[in-house]
Amino acid sequence: MADKDPGSYVMGNTSEEADRLGMQASLYDRHTEYLLRTAGLKEGMHVLDVGCGTGEVSLCAARIVGPSGRVLGVDREPGVLARARDNAAASPFENIAFEQGDLADLDTSGSFDAVVGRLILIHLDDPIGTVKALTGLVRRGGVVTFQDFNISRTRAVPDVPLVTRSVEWICAALREGGRDPDMGERLAHVLRLSGLSDPRVAVAVPTGGPDSAAVTLIAESARSLLPVMERGGITTAEEADLDTLRARMSRACTEVQATVYVPELVAAWAELD
Ligand SMILES: C[S@@+](CC[C@H](N)C(=O)[O-])C[C@H]1O[C@@H](n2cnc3c(N)ncnc32)[C@H](O)[C@@H]1O
Fold first, then answer.
1. Is 217 exposed, middle or buried (0-12, 13-18, 19+ CB in 10 A)?
2. Are the C-beta atoms of residues 122 and 182 closer than 8 Å to each other?
3. pTM metric for this prediction
4. Rg of the chain taking only CA atoms, in angstroms
5. Ligand 1 centre from 80 Cα, in Å?
6. Can you state the angle between helices 213-231 and 161-176, rounded to 10 degrees?
7. 231-256, pLDDT tens digit by residue?
8. Are 204 and 239 in contact (CB under 8 A)?
9. Which of 96, 173, 174, 208 has the smallest number of CB atoms closer than 10 Å to its CB?
10. 7 lines ligand 1 (CB under 6 A)
11. Which domains does the chain have, with CATH numbers?
12. 11 CA: nearest ligand 1 atom
């Protein structure tokens, strides 16, 4: 897939996008923790969380590793890191630190028991090169695990055409920005090409009713991607009508009493030989 906007974060770096990330993180909190535990995170580990955003994955990791472990979150955006630090300060955990840095030139000395990253490989121009480099920071027997979405599987059951159309807009916008909306299903392949043997995979999917955070997530993702949609001729502000999109989706879901399945969260992981 051609990268039409190399190196940039396709969802934008606005405070609305930071709000959306926080909302998305609460929806996936328990699923993320389950997948991190399944991948082998344990009490006492020293964990690096790459592309930590507003810090929710770091908080999940801190809950798992407990007071005898430590978590370092790294992100290149100072705005999200400020929120990450506030979130950590408001939490009961004292074993989390955050640093600003780009994963392309991470200068992290010392070795970690685990490297984790959620919704980061989809945004990188060279995911394989990055996983290879990050693997070098993990001790033998440690864990490398990444989580990403399969966005095209987002749906309402029974079908709600407005949900289907909104998901199609989101997927098309991500492709327009050079990103794979179904990065989740490529994770194991990426780990294998990065030199990791026998990667394993698990999937977790939050759901919600007609008036739930699941509906909000779809509407707010469309909002963050509107500039890309307009640039790529995918839809217009008039057609998407973002100020009413959530309410219209919610009404349509209520009419058929739909359950909304948000993007599948896929985890792939491997232990270092
Ligand atoms: C979709 S957010 C995910 C945040 C967090 N991992 C989560 O799941 O809530 C992606 C994050 O990766 C960061 N990011 C993207 N490319 C990066 C890079 N090359 N180096 C460091 N951070 C990067 C962005 O700033 C953003 O905060």
1. buried
2. no
3. 0.92
4. 18
5. 9
6. 50
7. 999 999 999 999 999 999 999 999 99
8. no
9. 208
10. no
11. 15-271 (3.40.50.150)
12. 1
